[in-house]
Amino acid sequence: MSPRSGQRPAELAPLLRDTRSCIERVSPEGTVMFAVGAVETLRGMAAPLRHGQPFVTAVARDDRAKVEAAMMRALNSDERVSVRYYGRRGGGRGRMVTTDFRREPSGTVIATTRRWNPAEGHAAFVDAVQEAIDRGERRYAVVLVEIQELHKVAGAFGYRRAEEVFEFVTTKLEGIFRERERIWPIGRGQLGVLLEITSPERTEAVVRDVERFFAHPHLFGGQEVRLRARVGVSTARPRYVSSEQLLVDAEAAAIRGGRKTSADAKIFSTSFMEEDRRQLTLAGSLGPAIRRGDIRLVYQPIVDLRGKRAYGFEVLSRWTHPTLGRVGPDEFVPLAEELGVVGELDNYVLEAACRELVSWGAAPMSLSANVSGKRADDPNLASEVAGTLERTGFMPAQLRLEVTETAMVSDPDSCRVVLDNLHASGISVAMDDFGTGFASFRQLVEMP
Question: For residue 425, which of 392, 381, 373 has the smallest C-alpha distance?
Answer without folding.
Answer: 381
